[in-house]
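Risk register update: the risk of archive-format incompatibility is retired. Evidence:
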Amino acid sequence: MVRMKRASALILGLAVLGSLAWVATPMVLIRPFGAQTPRGLAVSYSMRSHGAPLTLSLLILGLAAAIVLRPRLASWKGRVLAGGAVTLLAACAFLSRQDYFEWMFRPLPHPGFLDADQAKDVADEDLVLGIEVGSEAHAYPVRAMAYHHVVNDVVGGEPIVATY
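Archived output:
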């Protein structure tokens, strides 16, 4: 009985550590405002592409271990720890299915445009990012881009993504 309790606790703990490491590593390696290496990005994207099935499997494994462990836990503290571990596993399974980088940088999906002489929020000395496709040109104020970082737009009939 003691062996079963230890084995279940070990499985639950390893599932939590593995799941946390799998979800946190891309968060650390992909730094929007820091230097990134091609190897770090490749590892991060690979981990993110395999994260959803892996974290779901670890959640199921951890849940099974917690179910086996629950009747063997005498104190409420142990049950709270086991419940917290399962909650962490569920949070990792949720996060692995999210694009948490977009939580930081929300693309501006439908930008509005004015003629340059009508734009009142852009001073003459403000920096803008500009693009011209054919006879159509758009400018994106850097001050506005500093929050969104991404603008989805169509210029001259061509879909573009402007980033800053």
